[in-house]
Structure formats: structure tokens, C-alpha cells
Design a protein that fits this description.
single chain, 56 residues, mainly alpha, 3 helices, elongated, binds zinc ion
């Protein structure tokens, strides 16, 4: 699945990595921080969380 806009702020995504992630670089950093907090709560791996969201 490919994303054309950032899931957080709605800006258009230009680079391939951002499109694959669905977030711009800045929002992705924030998103990762949120995931890390969730990871600490749930004891999941960060990769489980990222891939689960990417393929919903
Ligand atoms: Zn954004």
C-alpha cells in the first residue's frame, strides 16, 4: 500500500521512504516516539507496531 499524504498533517509525501511509511520525516519521528511509548507499555517490538500499521 502506498500513501500520498502524511497521515498526521496531510502534507504531500515526496520521497519514496515517506510514501512507504505514510508519514513525512518530521511526523514520522513523532510517530516513532509515540510507538516507543506504546512499546514500553505493551512490550511489543517496534517493528511489529510499524508493520501492523503499514498494512492495515
Ligand atoms: Zn506530516
Amino acid at each position: 500500500m502506498q500513501h500520498t499524504e502524511c497521515a498526521t498533517c496531510g502534507r504531500k509525501l515526496k520521497d519514496k521512504k515517506s510514501i512507504e511509511r505514510g508519514y513525512g520525516p518530521v511526523c514520522y519521528d513523532k510517530h516513532l516516539q509515540a510507538i516507543e511509548e506504546e512499546f514500553e507499555r505493551n512490550q511489543m517490538t517496534i517493528y511489529d507496531v510499524i508493520e501492523g500499521e503499514a498494512y492495515v
